[in-house]
Design a protein that fits this description.
The strands form 2 sheets. This protein has a two-stranded parallel sheet. A two-stranded antiparallel sheet has the order 3-4. By secondary structure, the protein is α+β, with helices and mostly antiparallel strands. The chain contains 2 helices and 4 strands, in the order ββββαα. Helix 1 packs across helix 2. The longest helix is centred in the middle third of the chain and has 18 residues. It has a single domain, classed as 3-Layer(aba) Sandwich (Rossmann fold), CATH 3.40.50.200.
């Protein structure tokens, strides 16, 4: 795993050489940390460990649509969908970046197969009774802790 910055430049702190299979964004990534302020736990962090999360996320998206894929199949899919374009990559290091879409621009993971983010999704979006105050759920509503 190697890292690059927001300007698509190879990061000076990144791993390099033939052991690096893919590059991913790793510079100034929003993260959580005990080092952030008391009221806000978000902090910008840089490193290959930040890049690793991007690769893991793309692997998870691939597995969402290909649940029977073996680890080798997931790796192969990530490597084959990687794209070039990072500047300043040292000799002997790949310039392929992790990519969540195919060469023709179609996404290998379609939105209709993804679960909405529970932190940002509207919990009433798919519930027609949420807009109907007269709808009676018999006291078994989601808000009442009855499941």
């Amino acid at each position: 795993m190697g890292a690059y910055d927001r300007g698509d430049r190879f990061a000076s702190y990144s791993n390099h050489g033939s052991a690096v299979d893919l590059l991913a964004p790793g510079d100034e990534v929003v993260s959580l940390s005990h080092l952030a302020g008391e009221e806000d736990f978000l902090i910008l962090m840089s490193g290959t460990s930040m890049a690793a999360g991007h690769v893991t996320g793309v692997a998870a998206l691939y597995l969402a649509q290909n649940p029977q894929a073996s680890p080798v199949e997931v790796l192969t899919a990530l490597l084959e969908s990687g794209q070039s374009g990072i500047r300043g990559v040292p000799s002997g290091t790949t310039d392929k970046t992790v990519h969540a879409a195919t060469d023709d621009g179609t996404a290998p993971v379609t939105e209709d197969k993804l679960t909405p983010d529970p932190l940002t999704a509207d919990p009433t979006a798919d519930d027609p009774s949420a807009d109907d105050p007269s709808a009676d759920d018999g006291g078994k509503g989601k808000d009442k802790g009855n499941g």
